[in-house]
Structure formats: structure tokens, C-alpha cells
Amino acid sequence: VASRIRAWHHGRYRATRSERARQLLTELVPALLVALGGSSQPDDSFRRFDSFLESLPSGVQLFSLFHSNPGLLDTLADIMGLAPSLARLLGDNPSLLEGILTHDVAAALPDADQLTDELDRDLARARDYEDVLDISRRWINDRRFQIGVQSVRGLVEVEQAAASLSDIVDAAIRCLLPRVEEEFSRRHGRIPEASQPALAVIAMGKLGGRELTAGSDLDLVFVYDAPFESESDGEKPLPTSQYFIRLGQRLLAALTVRTSEGGLFEVDMRLRPTGNKGPISTSLETFRNYHADDAWTWERMALTRARVVAGAPELADRLRATITDILSRPRDLATLAQDVASMRERIAGEHKPTSPWAIKHWRGGLVDIEFTAQYLQLREASAHPNVVASNTVTALINLQAIGALSPQDFETLTQAARLWASLQALLRQTIGNSRDPSDIPEGLKARLARVGGAENFEALEADLRSRAETVMEIYTRLVVSSVSKVD
Predict the structure, then answer these.
(1) Looking at the 3D structure of the chain, how many domains does it have?
(2) Rounded CA gap, 360 and 351, in Å?
(3) Residues 59/25, Cβ–Cβ less than 8 Å
(4) Are residues 181 and 322 in the same domain?
(5) Which of 95, 158, 228, 347 registers the highest number of CB atoms within 10 A of its CB?
(6) Residue 252: CB partners within 8 Å, gap ≥ 6?
(7) Strand, helix or coil at 109?
(8) Cα separation, 447 vs 10, whole angstroms
(9) Whole-angstrom Cα distance, residue 60 to residue 192?
(10) Minimal CA–CA distance to 487: which of 352, 338, 368?
(11) Cβ(179)–Cβ(128) under 8 Å?
(12) Are strands 281-283 and 267-268 parallel, antiparallel or unpaired?
């Protein structure tokens, strides 16, 4: 420790090369060491802070921020001690700490509508389209970092953090979509018969279920409704299909491209009709016909997670009605049970985790709970259309309400789903996608045990294995055994 501090004072890092930076840091060192020493793993915290300091291009602004707001040192110590992935993110973008001062770090985030209004106000200051992309990235990254800090410091329930992360993404898509269309229309105009905005965006997967975690991909589908034979009215007119393919590509770029303010999201569009072989934007008619007549069972399972997050109200309503109609059609129960069980076995063959910390694919983990919920929804939706819900726990609640789940199975599955999701969210927020228990800092192990209501990390792991066995018994009884029963 002493040798590292001497390196700071001797200006061996870029952040400490100026005399003013060294002066500020010298004054900060006593309080900094107290904060880092108060973390659950002081040595790890100091080592990560040293790496963070070494990565900084300059230090005066950040050190001045700590001088003016000494409480930030405790926040920094928690990040360094518990969340290596957040520490790396902070090293890439130190200005994220300023966002904590802008927003009360302990306050719950506003809902999606309020966040949309907030981002809209920020984007109203944009001078041009490039400014739109930069401002949106600053706002989104600040808000995501706020959720990360709240999660690490135990200031927010994990379910609420997942919902808030999803709300941030919803707000981003809602605000960027009309601005992308406006920029696109400068050259290509608009399709006269189309709604405004002309595209609707469907969230699938974790975003659809409002279960987003740090680092999650966004599963999206773009849908439009306009006459096939029409064309746009701009300087460079395009036929309908080409217009919406290009517009979809532009929206995808707005959500993914890296600017001077950094990146935004990783987007996966393989859940659109015909997957990667199909056009990036799909007409409502094609979407309806594909899912009604040609979709595989796994695609209809995925559709239970669909949630329309952006688009003109009338188009969004038609799309929701279409999804409800598709999911509530009668099914061949033998084919349904066989397809679900076969798909789960294929996934199990591709993913062979060695510990329950591979939360998604561990047998009895999240995938088995989700497959059980999706199978039961597709089985019951023809008689009970309202049973379908994009959120897994909400779907389980609906299934229990109509008698498709016994009270005991309901309690087991919902408790396991919430626990698995909470642990996964905290792990992704702190150590990223690592599934190796040896990568989990000791302080984080203690936090995980508290989240799981266990005495210690070892007891938590034993509890996870026991819960997984019970979930597998339910999955086997409700899904796998149904194959032979229906046959």
C-alpha cells in the first residue's frame, strides 16, 4: 500500500502528473484510506482503486469532486470492494460519479413515463442528430450507473432494480424512435398512410418481462403497418418494404452505435419472424401470418414475453391484440409438450454448467422455471387469454389463480424465481457474466448470502442446490410427464 501511495505522489500515473492533482490527492488520502479500510475487503478495494486511478487520463476534476463531496468516497469504496464490473465502468467514464450528485442516489427512480419526460426535456436541447445520440447516452449511462450503485449499496430491492433498468430502456426507445424517424424523413420523407411514429417496437426476453439486468442484451422486434404498394414522399422516395428496412437499420444504429459518449446497448433481433434470414422490420400482416401459421413452438414461447414499448397508440393496440390472438389459439397439446421438453433438452446439451452459479442454465434454475411458465401459459391461454404475462412471476400468479398451478408448486416456483433472479442481477451488476465462484469477492459473497437469507455463502449454495432439485421435480411432473400422458 505504501509503495502504491508513493507512486501516486511521484506522479507516475497520468492522473497525478500535475502539481494541483498531487496536492488534492495528498489532502484526500487520509479520508480515502478510511473509506477503503471500512469496506468488507480493504485490500481488494485498495487494489481496484489503484487500478482505477491508473486508468484515469487526468485527476484534478475528479479529486476536486471528492473534495467538494466527501460522501462520494464511501460510495467509491463500496464500488471498489464489491463490484469489479462497476469499477471498470467507472474507470472508462469517471464522470458517472457526477450523476450521483445530480440524482439522489438513495431515491427510487421515477416510472417509465416520468423518465421519458425527463429524457425528452434533455433531448430538446440537442442542436443536431449527433447531439441527440450523445445526450441520450449520457443520460442513460448516468441513470444505469445510479441503479448499479443502489444495488451494490443495498438501497433497492433487486426486482425493483430490474424494473427500473427496463424503464430506462423503455424511455430511451420511446425518445429515440421519433427523432430517428424525423432524421430519416429529411431525405426519404414518410409513408403517407403510416402512423406516426411509423414503427412499433416489441420488447422480448428480459426486457419484455421487465426483468433486465446489467449487461443484458435487448431482444427487440420492429413492426410497421402500411400498404405494401405505397412509397415515401421525400426527396429520395423508397417503396414501403425498403423504407422500413432502412428505418429499422437507422433505429438499430441509434441504439447501438458508439459515440464520443460511449456505447449504449447490445441488441439481438433474432426473435423477429424467420430470424436473421428475415428483414429487420416486419409488416403487421407478415408478423400475424408467420406466428399464426409458421412459427415454431419455441417462438410462441418467446412471444409470451412480448411487450409493446413504443409506437403510435393505434398501431401498438393492434399489435397487442394480434399477440393476444396468436397466443390464445387452441393448440395440439401433445405437440406442445413434446416441443417444450425437446427444446429444453437441446439447451441442456449445449450448456453444461458445473455449479449453481450458472444461474440461467443450471438444471432447476431460471430456464426451467421460465419453460414451465411458458408451457402452462400456452396450454391454458385458449380458455384463459388473460393468463399470459410477459413477466415470469406475474405469469405464475395468473396460472395459480386459474388452478393451473397448485398453491405449493406456486410458492416453490415463485420463491425460486425471485431468488435466482435476485442473485443473477446482483452478480451481473458486480462481476459481469462470470460464473466462476472464485471470481466472487468475499464481501460480495456475504452480500449474496444476505440476499438469499442464508447464514453464509456455503449455506446459500447448498440451499440453491436443494431448491433446484425441487424445481426440477415440478418441471418434470408438469412438462416432461405431460408428453407421455397426452400421447
Answers:
(1) 2
(2) 10
(3) yes
(4) yes
(5) 158
(6) 267, 269, 280
(7) coil
(8) 37
(9) 54
(10) 338
(11) no
(12) unpaired
Residues comprising the chain, all counted: 487
Q: Please tell me whether residues 301 and 172 are part of one structural domain.
A: yes
Cα 250 to chain centroid, rounded: 21
C-alpha pair distances (Å), 390 with each of 210, 385, 393 = 8, 13, 9
What distance in Å separates the CA atoms of residue 116 and residue 310, rounded to the nearest whole number? 11
C-beta of residue 486 within 8 angstroms of C-beta of residue 337: yes
Q: Are residues 347 and 442 in the same domain?
A: yes
User: Where does a domain end: 308, 327, 346?
Assistant: 327
Residue 109 corresponds to which cell in the numbers above?
427512480
pTM: 0.91
Phi-psi sector, 214: left (phi>0), alpha (psi -120 to 50), beta: beta
390-393: Cβ within 8 A, 24+ apart: 390/203, 390/208, 390/209, 390/210, 390/304, 390/305, 390/306, 390/307, 391/209, 391/210, 391/211, 392/209, 392/211, 392/417, 392/421, 393/417, 393/418
CA distance 447 to 82: 9
For residue 331, give the C-alpha cell.
393448440
Q: Of 387, 313, 379, 314, which is closest to residue 341 (Cα–Cα)?
A: 379
Q: Which amino acid is at 226?
A: A
Domain-ending residue, one of 302, 327, 352: 327
Which domain does 276 fall in, by range?
A: 136-146+157-327
- For residue 483, the Cα-to-chain-centroid distance in whole angstroms is 34
Count the Cβ atoms, other than its own, within 10 Å of residue 9: 12
Asked whether the beta carbons of 198 and 244 are under 8 A apart, the reply is yes
Q: Are 483 and 375 in contact, with CB atoms under 8 Å apart?
A: no
Three-state DSSP class for residue 352: coil
Residue 439 DSSP class: G
Q: Residue-wise pLDDT tens for the chain (487 aa)?
A: 888 999 898 888 999 999 999 999 999 999 999 999 887 778 888 988 998 898 888 889 889 999 998 888 988 888 888 888 888 888 878 888 877 777 677 778 899 999 999 999 999 999 999 999 999 999 999 999 999 889 888 888 888 999 999 999 999 999 999 999 999 999 999 999 888 889 999 999 999 999 999 889 999 999 999 999 999 999 999 999 999 999 999 999 999 999 988 888 999 999 999 898 999 999 999 999 999 999 999 999 999 999 999 999 999 999 999 999 999 999 999 999 999 999 999 999 999 988 899 999 999 999 999 999 999 999 999 999 999 999 999 999 999 999 999 999 999 999 999 999 999 998 888 888 777 888 888 888 988 999 999 999 999 999 999 999 999 999 999 999 988 665 5
